[in-house]
Amino acid sequence: MPPAAQRNRKVAIVGVSLSDCGRVDTATPYALHAQAARRALADSGLDRSVVDGFASAGLGALAPVEVAEYLGLRPTWADSTAVGGATWEVMAAHAADAIAAGHARAVLLVYGSTARADIRAGRRTANLSFGARGPLQFEVPYGHTLVAKYAMAARRHMHEYGTTLEQLADIAVQARINAGHNPDAMFREPITVDDVLSGPMIADPFTKLHCCIRSDGGCAVLLAAEEYVPDTAKPPVWVLGSGTAVSHTTMSEWEDFTVSPAAASGRAAFARAGVRPSDIDVAELYDAFTYMTLVTLEDLGFCAKGEGGAFAAKGRLTRDGELPTNTDGGGLSACHPGMRGLFLLVEAVRQLRGEAGERQVRKAGGRLPELAVASGTGGWFCSAGTVVLGRG
């Protein structure tokens, strides 16, 4: 392809895969990275020699150099962005831009974690915060843990808009309904609103079932330039638009606890894709806590600010609802190994391809969904990345 044409190439996701997920007691994080990468390459049908870009975060002192070496890759384009759970949507945006500009042919995004197994084996303890240096030193001594930050934001939303505990609990119930259709989900047994409300308190107002599960697992996504699409094994899923945003680190610098940076990243992604929230068929949203789903629905424009609780009610987020959301069961029920953002992209692609099995979303007449959005959140609403995808 002539150099001028390479500066405006379309970009597609051509391969996706999960590693073993859930309870994985014998593998290392590196092994999960390798397993997911091999499977994603096989899913794409492309040879590994095409891959000249690599992105990874969260493992090794020199990520992604160490992981690329482990995988036997020598990329000429790399990204090690680390902004929490939103990392993978931000990386996908970077990768798409690089491919479109001709800086790379195909970029592999890979993640793997044995967070659950490490705790069970005593190799690490559960993290209460991200650290106590820099700006965080002014909060950590007072017991302001990671979950407490989300809980405080949820309470503010309840205070300002009348959002109820029952509405938040119903989000967990619907995530479990979706997980019931996913044979790979870690928890599939149905739960009720009463089950959520009566569970042990973690951080007011969050009981245990308001919070994501802790699992092991990994996944991979391969993006490639349009000229490689004819050689792929599966239909392409095109990257139509993306947006990224950062907000705050310390809670005192967060201007409004009821607004996440997805308000900015989503607005940019939809505008660049040339679509509206009402056009979206499937939404994959970061859900470390039930409040994250609610506020992201609002900030992406699926409903007005303050109406998230009512919007998410009556089964609207289930596979057969008006806006199927977190169709694999999400971090609340399916898997959450640490930074879940890449899993959102995998599930969105599978839904658009029609590969989701029992949990497959169908439009009127049995048609496959045409548009999906994946929106990741990092830190305690510190960052956001939103990607709009379209079926080829």
UniProtKB/TrEMBL annotation:
InterPro entries with a match to the protein in the record: Thiolase, Thiolase-like, Thiolase_C_2
Domain of life: Bacteria
Domain Thiolase C-terminal: 243-391
A Pfam family it matches: Thiolase_C_1
UniProt protein name: Acetyl-CoA acetyltransferase
